[in-house]
Amino acid sequence: MSDVIFQAKQRTDCGKGAARRLRKTGRLPGVIYGREGAAATIDLDTREFIAGVKGISESTIVQVEIDGVKHDAFVKATQRTIQDGNILHVDFYEIERGKVLRAKVRVHVNGNPIGVREGGILEIPIHDVEVECLPKDLPRRINVDISTLAVNQSIHVRDLALGDGVKLISAEDQVVALVKFAKAEKAAEEEGGETADEAASSSAPAKE
Fold first, then answer.
1. What pLDDT sits at residue 191?
2. What percent of the chain shows pLDDT beyond 90?
3. C-alpha angle 46-141-177 in degrees, rounded to nearest 5
4. At 9, which helix (H) or strand (E)?
5. How does DSSP assign 91-109, residue by residue?
6. What percent of the chain stands above pLDDT 70?
7. Helix (H) and strand (E) counts for the chain?
């Protein structure tokens, strides 16, 4: 199911002191949470995790192999140091094959919109959507071609191609991408009415 596989070990020695000692040996402490609320403390190779986690999102299903037993899971959270961003701890959330799940999937836009080439400004208000589906149907990301997007046109969540078996949970009327014609707005401001100084001058009483 997953191209990303982490080899982990069950951890029995818990606490801050144990975690510090573990990190000194090049191991990363973590927890994998089950669907029913149960949690197992684990540790895995720090370098292996850093290399494997690159480029994945909250909706990427990874495989955590704990003492030979494989678990499909999401990487839900990583705790890092404030100073240098080193990873201190990782949380996994286990999923179960054949059972429907909810997840946020990243939306990736492709292309240079026609409207931008005509002077418009591209806006991308959201970067992910929530969906419901079986693990096997979960898309890693949703690609959106915005190259034909003209000025004053937009793409909404309802326009996304989700694939078979994927149900949309996010509001359908949310805007994914739009192009605004900023030059037209600026021109209208320049052409419309008097400036503040002009208005003050015209409203002042004439001197005799």
1. 54
2. 59
3. 125
4. strand 5-10
5. EEEE--TTS-EEEEEEEEE
6. 85
7. 5, 13
